[in-house]
Design goal:
Blueprint: H1 2-14, H2 19-41, E1 49-54, E2 60-64, E3 67-73, E4 78-79, E5 83-89, E6 96-102, H3 109-125
Antiparallel strand pairs: 1-2, 2-3, 3-5, 4-5, 5-6
């Protein structure tokens, strides 16, 4: 989000507009950037994923501000040793929920490794 907002500011500054127009556009960009950061960067949106749980039967539960939701792990998830981008489909909707998980986001270091093992086993089953 920061990179996109910084690029937007640079583009705005390079436009051939007057000072008043640039100031107005910058104020709109700052307000919109603050809104996006508040909702998604600080996980304030009701559908922002704040926790994930893998159940023993291979199903997943997503914890959001709106409550717990059953989810299915999508095949287009990306799993590496440092970062994992997990994509979940909930219900019958076409939209997917994305969850970025960093290795250092767990309290216990072995939890990330265990998650990687579960995800790789899940991929082999598919």
């Amino acid at each position: 989000m920061t990179v996109i907002l910084a690029a937007s500011v640079l583009i705005l500054l390079s436009l051939p507009l007057g000072l008043a127009a640039k100031s107005l556009a910058f104020a709109v960009l700052a307000a919109y950037g603050s809104h996006i950061f508040w909702r998604y960067g600080l996980l304030r949106h009701k559908h922002a994923v704040t926790g994930i749980r893998c159940l023993g039967d291979g199903s997943w539960h997503l914890e959001t501000r709106a409550g717990m939701r059953a989810a299915e792990l999508s095949g287009d998830s990306t799993v590496t040793g440092l970062i994992s981008i997990l994509r979940f489909r909930t219900g019958t909707g076409l939209l997917k929920h994305s969850c970025i998980v960093l290795r250092d986001s767990f309290v216990q270091p072995d939890c990330y490794r265990q998650m990687l093992v579960i995800l790789r086993m899940k991929r082999q089953e598919s």
